[in-house]
Every structure is written in C-alpha cells, then in structure tokens.
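Subject: DUF1852 domain-containing protein structure
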Amino acid sequence: MGMQVRFFMPPNSVAPLAFYFYGDLLDDYTNLELIGTISTMETFQKIYRPEIYNANSAAGNFYQPSLTNQDYSSTQIVYDREERSQLAVQQGKFAEEHFIKPYGSVLHRWTASSAS
C-alpha cells in the first residue's frame, strides 16, 4: 500500500493538519503518538506557516491555503528552511532519547488509564 494522506481539523484551529503515512493511521500508532504529533504540528505550523496556521479567520468548508494570505498574526520569528529541516530531526531524536525511551512504560500506563 502506498502513502496515504488524511486531514484532521483540531477544535479551534484555522486550518486542517495533513497526515502523510503508510499503513493504518489509527492502528499503527498509539494515541500518545498521535496526540504528541498533533500538538507538535499545531505549534510548529503556527511558527513556520503563520500565513496559513496562525490566520485570524478559520478556513471555510472548501479549503484553499495561500502563502500570500495577509490575514494572520505574525510570530516575528525568522527561520531558514534548511536549518528548520535539520532542527526538526534533531528535536525528534532528542525527544525520543530523553522522553519517549526513558518514560515509555509510564506513558503507556498513563494512556491506558486515560482511555478508560
């Protein structure tokens, strides 16, 4: 099966988030992985794509994003695309090494107790 894409519109968001994945999005990933991904996506998208994700008005039923949209709140953050790509990989590895691996069993117990 090839790559798939699914869109998710979190409550109070102005634009949907796109999930590109292989396999089964809901069965192949834990609730914690999905929650962490959505939280990270929301934060980073507002910083790196404010013209879409930090807009002052919500997307309509037919969504057409535009990088020239002027109806947004600037984050006043300047970034380099290459640096951003490297930083994302480094942050992911750091989170895995210092958070997911050491506290994985605690996180699994927490999500299991939260699900009931």
